[in-house]
Specification:
Elements lengths: L8 H22 L3 H65 L3 H6 L7 H8 L4 H16 L3 H10 L5 H17 L3 H15 L5 H14 L3 H14 L9 H12 L2
Helix pairs in contact: 2-5, 4-5, 5-6, 6-7, 7-8, 8-9, 9-10, 10-11
């Protein structure tokens, strides 16, 4: 008698379950993760945004380009030539000022120079027009027009430290001549601090001390005189300051 052995059904079951598990893992691995879904959604929304607002984006980019080009053109073809023209216009005035021709320097020569006042008006906003304000103020001071001088000098925007100190000191001179001693003293003190040099600071400290003496404030005057001697001993003012120190001390001891 011959017997036939059938295949093991248990073995088949094991193989089938393993195949199902592997298939499930393969399907799960093929599915996108949450991070991938988020990135996909962002990209999709970005594409939608670009498609929807493409025209506006292009207009915005074009506007920015036009603004940048406009600024370059404006600077190159307007501001720079205007600044050069202002410098050319200022030069004769500086020569008149150096020659102490205050009125011509200020108001022009009726030929081809428009004066510091004309430069301030015609070339406003330029460096030369700003400098013309300082020159105009100094001319007005020399002509005895202290109020006008102070207005011009105060409108000047200073950058150079030493020249700024001189302008500040000139404002102090204007205020003193207008009878505003306290204001003048404040400007002299500021000028001395701003200059911070043995050339200019002693000059303004001396002016401050003299103005203080005229107000009867000998203590503050003594401090200013002493500052000249201690801080700037090599200056011409320091060689003469001892007698002023003694004078201020004598007034304090009365």
């Amino acid at each position: 008698m011959i017997y036939f052995c059938s295949p093991n059904p248990i073995g088949k079951t094991k193989i089938t379950l393993y195949s199902i598990k592997m298939a499930k893992k393969t399907k799960l691995s093929e599915q996108p993760t949450q991070a991938e879904k988020s990135v996909g959604e962002i990209l999709s929304k970005t594409d939608q945004f670009v498609d929807k607002y493409l025209k506006q984006i292009l207009i915005g980019v074009a506007a920015v380009i036009l603004i940048v080009v406009g600024i370059i053109v404006f600077r190159h073809y307007y501001l720079i030539p205007r600044e050069k023209n202002a410098e050319t216009a200022l030069f004769p005035g500086q020569n008149y000022y150096a020659g102490q021709q205050w009125d011509k320097a200020l108001n022009g020569d009726s030929i081809d120079y428009i004066g510091f006042t004309g430069i301030i008006h015609d070339f406003s906003g330029t460096k030369s027009a700003n400098l013309a304000k300082a020159y105009a103020g100094l001319c007005e001071y020399q002509l005895g027009n202290y109020e006008e001088a102070a207005k011009y000098l105060k409108s000047y925007s200073a950058k150079d430290r030493l020249f700024a100190a001189q302008v500040t000191g000139a404002i102090g001179d204007c205020e003193v001549n207008l009878g505003n001693l306290k204001e003048g003293i404040a400007y002299f003190r500021k000028a001395a601090e701003k200059a911070n040099s043995s050339l200019l600071s002693p000059v303004y400290l001396n002016k401050e001390a003299v103005a203080l003496e005229s107000l009867g404030d000998y203590k503050a005057a003594l401090e200013a005189y002493t500052a000249i001697k201690t801080k700037y001993p090599q200056s011409p003012e320091a060689s003469l300051v001892d007698k002023f120190i003694e004078r201020a001390k004598a007034q304090l001891n009365k």
